[in-house]
Specification:
This protein is an all-alpha fold and 175 residues long. The protein contains eight helices and no strands. The chain has one domain. It is elongated.
Length: 175
Amino acid sequence: MQPRIPVHIRVVDQRFKRYLWPYLFQSAAAALALFLVLALQDIGAHAVIVAAIASTTFVLFFMPRRSAAKPRKVLGGHFWGALIGGAIAFFASSPAGLELAGLTGYAFEIEAALAVGLTMLAMVATSTEHAPAPGTALGLVINPFDWRVVLFVAVSVVLLSLAHRLMRPWLRDLV
């Protein structure tokens, strides 16, 4: 009989061994879906946006039956992130935004905090909570406003949601 290792000492989850094949399958499916989404579009150096999309991929492929994986939440959350982050980034690059930025040394920090905070508020108010979506808002504020990035987010979440929908019968909650 093997000695039991206390939970706080374990590095690998006990369920991993029992569900090895689903973990491997869903990891491969998630990686392939993300590869296709990224390969179909040119996003450039927008690392925060790609991180938000990668986080959404995790939710869809490892928590496929959870509330956060519902299309309303995925699409709605990223919609709010893109709308609010895009609006703040657009304003920040306008003459009025640049003038306002000259009045404080914390313009970027204020814009980033507003984008994330307002995105979270909008998601909670509309029941479209999706944890990776504020990353979309932050990513849009970090870089100069670009419609191609907004389009990338929209296409990515639609494609990932479709892949999730098609593969859902073979996916199980592993988290």
